[in-house]
Amino acid sequence: MVRMPESPESRRYHHGDLRAALLTAAERTLRDKGAASLSLRELAREVGVSHAAPGRHFKDKQALLNALALAGYERLGQALGAADDRALPLERRLTALARTYLGFAIDNAELLELMYARKHDPDASEQMAAAVEQTVGSLERVLADAQNRGEIIEGDPEELNLVTGAALHGMAAFIAGGWLTPEAALAGVEGLVHHLLHGLKPR
Amino acid sequence: MVRMPESPESRRYHHGDLRAALLTAAERTLRDKGAASLSLRELAREVGVSHAAPGRHFKDKQALLNALALAGYERLGQALGAADDRALPLERRLTALARTYLGFAIDNAELLELMYARKHDPDASEQMAAAVEQTVGSLERVLADAQNRGEIIEGDPEELNLVTGAALHGMAAFIAGGWLTPEAALAGVEGLVHHLLHGLKPR
DNA sequence: CATCATTGTTGTCATTGACAGCATTGTTGG
DNA sequence: CCAACAATGCTGTCAATGACAACAATGATG
Predict the structure, then answer these.
(1) How do residues A58-76 score in pLDDT, each as one tens digit?
(2) Does the C-beta of A20 come within 7 A of strand D?
């Protein structure tokens, strides 16, 4: 009396792609109910497996979160890469990049918070580092190009990356943290980039 | 065999100032072992009270975290206020402010992360909002003064606050998140402020 | 000093993450 | 074709935790 499939496709002993299913469910829960109320057992229930099944795919809860964050960075990196049009004039190019980043922050506030909150597993961070690099790389590329073209000042690229990155990151954090509404954020992008490029001092 | 004080002053039925003791212990734990491993019961043990005692002072765990964050904002706000010298020329004044903020981020990385991660209790946020306002206020004051003196461009103050605030916040987040070492951060402050004021475009 | 609000205490519950041991399935080499 | 064997799931169990209820000691107040 054990083998009694309740619906055609459910109840296979092997789920097929549990890992992916868990990640998907996790991200949905994250979006709906926040990172706090993310429980492995709850996920298992949602996906329809036993409470210990997730353990086969994620060593512990942190591993699940790491995977989630990694996926986030990959999507963000890809979005940024796709949004970067080298043909655009600097200010518009940067604005487009910023808009994309902030858009991601708006649509994935909770996820972004997760991504920021690294609990550096020294091994998981290899992949992570690569993913992060790809997101940061987009910005670096824009600035490097601009520097090569003489559109922005010379000087240590690291420093320029830092300023620009910090400003973008700060905005995104404002959004993710709820200090800034999506509307206000998007409305401010243009000004943000402008002021970054032109400075606050009168010319 | 119940009433047997193990040391002179310990073991009073009423702790005297449990609330404060809990907050202190919590902050220490936060600093040492991170926000994740912060348990009410553990705190109770450290302070030497029963596992349910904290419940008298904090409705639930989140309330404790809120109180912690609030205290953080108060300290930060005070530090910023104290560091702001209206007599200083703009760039130095701003740099001093930034240094103070980043210093706080360095010394209280975990706490800062807590402060960013608001779970808006609509009531607790009144006090919180006031505390936040005080920290943000420092920056606003500097920029408003500068604008009055014609040292920076005119235009919507909100927008200027946003850019500057985002850049500072971003740096602090980099520190709190471990992407930036304290040394690198402090070394970059000067450049950050400079680039903010003067812009990235050549003059 | 009798009453009552504060503040602690013990006891209990459901939930959770982690792990151990076993069961089922899929795969691979003989 | 099938006998290992690896992967992947399952059930059972544990200790820790947050939350709550009922009760006890203390302190404040009229």
Answers:
(1) 999 999 999 999 999 999 9
(2) no
